[in-house]
Design a protein that fits this description.
CATH topology of the largest domain: DNA polymerase, domain 1
InterPro entries: CNKSR, CRIC_domain, SAM, SAM/pointed_sf
Protein name: Connector enhancer of kinase suppressor of ras 3-like
CATH class of the largest domain: Mainly Alpha
CATH architecture of the largest domain: Orthogonal Bundle
Number of helices: 7
Largest sheet: none
Strand content: under 5%
Shape: elongated
Pfam families: CRIC_ras_sig (PF10534), SAM_1 (PF00536)
Radius of gyration: 20 Å
Distance between the termini: 6 Å
Helix content: 55-70%
CATH superfamily of the largest domain: Transcription Factor, Ets-1
């Protein structure tokens, strides 16, 4: 896949990209065109920007911002990352989750003699989020 410089996309290209995300994004096509959101602006969109142009549904905002984050990740790291580095990063993050889970289970079982898997501490959930983010980047790299 050839390198695509998203930063030079015109508003029409950005609007076409938006249409390709999901059918639910079709109503927002003209919002992006009317606001002249180009590639440079797309890469720095925020929740406030989306609210300002009329995209108020949280789920739609999440979808757009997640897609722009993925697009930015691909744009900025396409040349610098390769499969081996992504696999190593994923393996390291997965080991961190594994170690945190083992530590939390052993701490809880030593404190009261039983393990309560009712909740996970915030640090473990954060680590799981990092694994998912790294995995998404890896899948995107493979899918390019």
């Amino acid at each position: 896949m050839a390198f695509v410089n998203i930063a030079i996309w015109k508003p029409e290209q950005v609007a076409e990209w938006l249409k390709g995300l999901d059918d639910a994004m079709l109503p927002y096509y003209h919002f992006f065109l009317n606001e002249s959101i180009d590639g440079k602006h797309l890469m720095s969109l925020t929740y406030d920007d989306l609210d300002r142009i009329g995209i108020t549904k949280i789920g739609h905002q999440e979808m757009i911002l997640e897609a722009t984050n993925l697009l930015a990740s691909l744009h900025y790291s396409l040349e610098s990352e390769h499969l081996q580095s992504l696999a190593l990063k994923l393996g390291g993050k997965a080991r961190l989750v594994h170690n945190h889970l083992r530590m939390n289970i052993s701490l809880r079982s030593s404190v009261n003699g039983s393990v309560h898997p009712d909740y996970l501490p915030t640090d473990v959930l954060s680590d799981i989020s990092h694994v998912v983010t790294t995995l998404k980047t890896m899948v995107s790299w493979l899918d390019r």
